[in-house]
Amino acid sequence: MGHELEYNRDGTARFAYRDTGIAPWHRLGTSVQGLQTAEKMLEIAKADFDVILTRVAAVDDEGNVIRNIDGSPVIIQDSRATVRQNPDGTFDPLATVGTRYEVRQNKEVLERALAVVGSSMGEAVMDTVGVLRNGKRFFATIELGALVIDPKGIDDRIARYLVVSSGHDGVWPIRYANTDVRAVCHNTVALGIKEAERVFTARHTRNVDFALEDAREVLRISVEWGKQFQVLAEKMLLVKIPLGSPKVDQVLRKVFPDVSTTGRQRKNREETIGLVKSIYNNANNAGKCGYNGWSLYNAIVEYLDHFRGTSADERAIASMDEASGVTQKKLIAQTAVLS
């Protein structure tokens, strides 16, 4: 997803979220009351800017354009630049990109996502909309409904979202990714499902429209992901792990290996393991679902999403990035629980 939300000069984040009565872990911007259109959410998040594609001219160290003898500017032929055009008439440089790059506005990408989930453009209710990396990247989430793990038993509800993201930097493609958030404590539950894809990707090139027209493929990925997620979660639920079982320490050693070289590092690791055990034993995990692999797994991801020693926005973004170290630890935890 990226690393940083963009903040306005007044200190507010370019991020809007639908207020459902509880401020979930990843919602750091403006709370929106009631049902809002996608267009309104873009406006509140200040994500409704336009991006233009420009030629790239050579400049000297003082910012003066270098010119040919005839007075024409020296143009870099094999590069283009993306520039944000703000509503107040100012401009912000974003990135240099290749000549095949095609701009896709945030609104356009969002409307495509709504079409994928069968919503009418401009009339659907969004969950979140946000801007990352000083305008270079954009994302939004659309709620797809809940999965219920063991409906006749623990009845653990997992909120499912389609996360759409796009970059104006020539690096980040247009992507639709499935993500799942445990409703009881709002941590992102990342499971490594080999049988189901999670992400649909399209590049910012001239054939992007053709690729994005295949909405059925995106929906197929989403449906298959949900089915496999539920199967794997209920498989973890069957692994019994009492609080004092050696299995607890075995799993935690794999997720948090001892790489300490100082007494302070060893103490920090011991405190982390102690905290995860207490989270395992709390009302959200063993208190709700029993002492089993599903509860232990969720204790680990709850620690990574809520208690890890870093900023709230870094934890939020890392939890939605399948390439982050946080996500990798979650996948290690899954494997360790089931081994």
Helix content: 25-40%
The secondary structure category is alpha+beta
Largest sheet: 8 strands, mixed
The H/E string reads EEHEEEHEEEEEEHHHHHHHH
Oligomer: single chain
Overall tally of domains:
2
Count of helix runs: 10
Whole-angstrom Rg: 23 Å
* Unreliable residue runs: none
Task: Name the average pLDDT.
Answer: 86
Approximately what portion of the residues adopt beta-strand conformation? 15-25%
Shape: globular
**Count of strand segments:** 11
Give the N-terminus to C-terminus distance in angstroms.
Answer: 30 Å
Your description of this structure?
It is a single chain. With 339 residues, the chain is of the alpha+beta class. The protein has helices at residues 38-44, 106-116, 208-212, 215-237, 246-255, 263-280, 286-289, 293-307, 312-319, 325-338, and strands spanning 15-18, 30-32, 50-57, 75-85, 91-97, 128-132, 137-149, 156-167, 174-182, 187-188, 199-202. The protein folds into 2 domains: 15-48 and 103-235, no CATH class; 238-338, no CATH class. The strands form 2 sheets. Strands 1, 2, 6, 7, 8, 9, 10 and 11 form an 8-stranded mixed sheet that branches. β4 (75-85) and β5 form a beta hairpin. α8 (293-307) packs antiparallel against α10 (325-338). The chain is globular.
